[in-house]
């Protein structure tokens, strides 16, 4: 498990170094996750220790939301003052995600139809 967590952290660190070194407007962990994905696709999937570790982390994913929940409770006054902007951002980003998902699904279905 320690080797698998180290591998995940190495990819995160590599992504962070590349993102900061090249001044990319992309978070380092996202870039690291993309690099890990590409590596796993090339290798044909994750090894059993990495798969088991990932399942273990996903099983305890809810624990990662505790700090965010504590932060929300800590800054309720600020949230009360800016709730309108937060609601607009939430609605717009949700609609944008739905629209992009629909467009991608539509493109994939068209592509699949051309193959048949």
Describe the structure in your own words:
83% of the residues lie in helices and 0% in strands. Helix 1 crosses helix 2 (28-43) and helix 1 packs across helix 3. The model has no long low-confidence stretch (mean pLDDT 90). It is mainly α and 116 residues long. The protein has six helices and no strands. The chain has helices spanning 2-21, 28-43, 48-59, 66-74, 76-81, 83-115.
Ordered list of secondary-structure elements with their pairings:
Elements: H1 2-21, H2 28-43, H3 48-59, H4 66-74, H5 76-81, H6 83-115
Helix pairs in contact: 1-2, 1-3
Would you kindly provide a brief summary of this structure?
This protein is mostly helical and 116 residues long.
Q: Could you state the order of secondary-structure elements as H and E?
A: HHHHHH
Structural class: mainly alpha
Please give the largest β-sheet: none
Q: Would you count the extended β strands for me?
A: 0
pLDDT < 50 runs, ≥5 residues: none
What's the shape?
extended
Strand content: under 5%
Determine the fraction of residues in helical runs and give it as a percent range: over 70%
Distance between the ends: 44 Å
Q: Average pLDDT value?
A: 90
The radius of gyration computed from the alpha-carbon positions, rounded to a whole number of angstroms, is 19 Å
- Put simply, the count of helices is 6
Characteristics of this structure?
6 helices, 83% helix, mainly alpha, 116 residues, single chain
């Amino acid at each position: 498990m320690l080797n698998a967590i180290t591998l995940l952290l190495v990819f995160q660190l590599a992504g962070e170094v590349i993102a900061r070194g090249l001044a990319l407007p992309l978070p380092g962990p996202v870039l690291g996750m993309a690099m890990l994905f590409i590596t796993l696709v090339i290798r044909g999937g994750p090894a059993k220790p990495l798969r088991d570790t990932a399942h273990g982390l996903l099983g305890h994913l809810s624990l990662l939301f505790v700090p965010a929940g504590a932060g929300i409770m800590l800054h309720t006054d600020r949230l009360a003052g800016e709730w309108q902007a937060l609601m607009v951002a939430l609605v717009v980003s949700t609609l944008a995600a739905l629209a992009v998902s629909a467009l991608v699904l539509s493109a994939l279905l068209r592509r699949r139809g051309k193959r048949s």
